[in-house]
Amino acid sequence: MTQEELLTVNADTCVDARGTSCPGPLLAAKKAIGTIDKGQIMEILSADEGTRNDIPKWCNKKGFECLGTLEESGFYKIYLKK
């Protein structure tokens, strides 16, 4: 997705992992993925730069679709579709 398209995404659930460092955001995402249905979108908030790589790799491994990342002031918003 383009950055403009990501701005319009309405996530079904949000995981706020901004207070944790690697691998905290990935572990929080792994825990939360079980709470959404196939086709739903999850937003992960993380201040850890490594999450930008970890989440897409995990999505690829598990068959989820990583929609993209938005960079905000001091944190990232990463979107994935289950």
Automatic annotation (TrEMBL):
Domain UPF0033 per the UniProt entry, residue ranges: 15-39
InterPro entries: TusA-like (IPR001455), TusA-like_sf (IPR036868)
Pfam families, per database record: TusA
Entry-linked Gene3D superfamilies: TusA-like domain
Superkingdom of this protein's organism: Bacteria
Similarity comment: Belongs to the sulfur carrier protein TusA family.
Protein name: SirA family protein
Organism: Labilibaculum antarcticum
Source species taxonomy: Bacteria, Pseudomonadati, Bacteroidota, Bacteroidia, Marinilabiliales
